[in-house]
Amino acid sequence: MTSTATMQQRYPYQHLWPDTARRPLLGFAAWSGTGKTTLLEAVIPRLRQAGTRVALVKHAHHDFDVDYPGKDSYELRKAGADQVLVTSAERWALIRERPATRDPILAEEIARLEQDSFDLLLVEGFRHERFPKIELLRDPGASASPLFRNDDAIIAVAAPDGLAMDTTLPRLSLDSPGMVARFILEHIMQAQ
Questions:
Q1: How many CA atoms lie within 13 A of 188 on its CB side?
Q2: Which tens digits make up the pLDDT trace of 103-132?
């Protein structure tokens, strides 16, 4: 696989992409409970309406399961299958156990994706990794300090209208998913 360091820089912020990325990507970073999923649920349909094929990597900070007791795939995995592929005419899902418990690494997760099948990769979480991100802020004076102060890979801040902030980064409205989608289309997706 070609690394982004040796690829021609075609997209804004491409120098911040993990080496495994071959498509434009943008993260949404924030402290828990800020509304990352809510914003993405509103932005993704707007991107799709603009003709953008979207993939998403979401970091979960807890044990999760996409299957549940009683389903054949769950029972077979619990019986010892390290990988279970569930497939139908409409979709497929691969459930794979990690050999050792550790926090996921974004570059490794991106390498698992079929990158020719999407135009844009959105990432929810992975706030401690270096790649282009929009930070969501609700109250910068709260107990958690804004991430942009210590992360030069944050390229914009999304906050509620009227919230005072001390930053020179582009300011997006959390109250306007359309504005966020336009920013992505104009500043992330446009080849240089």
A1: 27
A2: 899 999 999 999 999 999 999 989 999 999
C-beta of residue 132 within 8 angstroms of C-beta of residue 188 = yes
- Matching residue, tokens 């924030």: 30
Look at residue 43 and tell me whether its pLDDT is greater than 80: yes
Q: Can you give the pTM of this predicted structure?
A: 0.87
Q: Residue written as tokens 């139908």?
A: 88
**Who contacts 121 (Cβ-Cβ below 8 Å, separation ≥6)?**
21, 23, 24, 25, 26, 54, 55, 56, 57, 110, 113, 115
The domain ranges of the chain are: 14-59+104-187, 64-100
CATH number of 14-59+104-187: 3.40.50.300
The CA dihedral of 59, 160, 181, 56, to the nearest 10 degrees, is 10
- As given in the structure block, the two tokens for residue 96 are 């794979």
Residue 51 pLDDT grade (very low, low, confident, very high; cuts 50, 70, 90):
very high
**Structure tokens of 58?**
């979401």
* % of the chain exceeding 70 in pLDDT: 92
Task: Answer for the pair 122, 55: CB distance below 8 angstroms, yes or no.
Answer: yes
Q: Is 6 exposed, middle or buried (0-12, 13-18, 19+ CB in 10 A)?
A: exposed
| Strand ranges in 63-191 using DSSP code E only, listed in sequence order | 83-87, 92-96, 120-124, 133-136, 154-159, 171-173
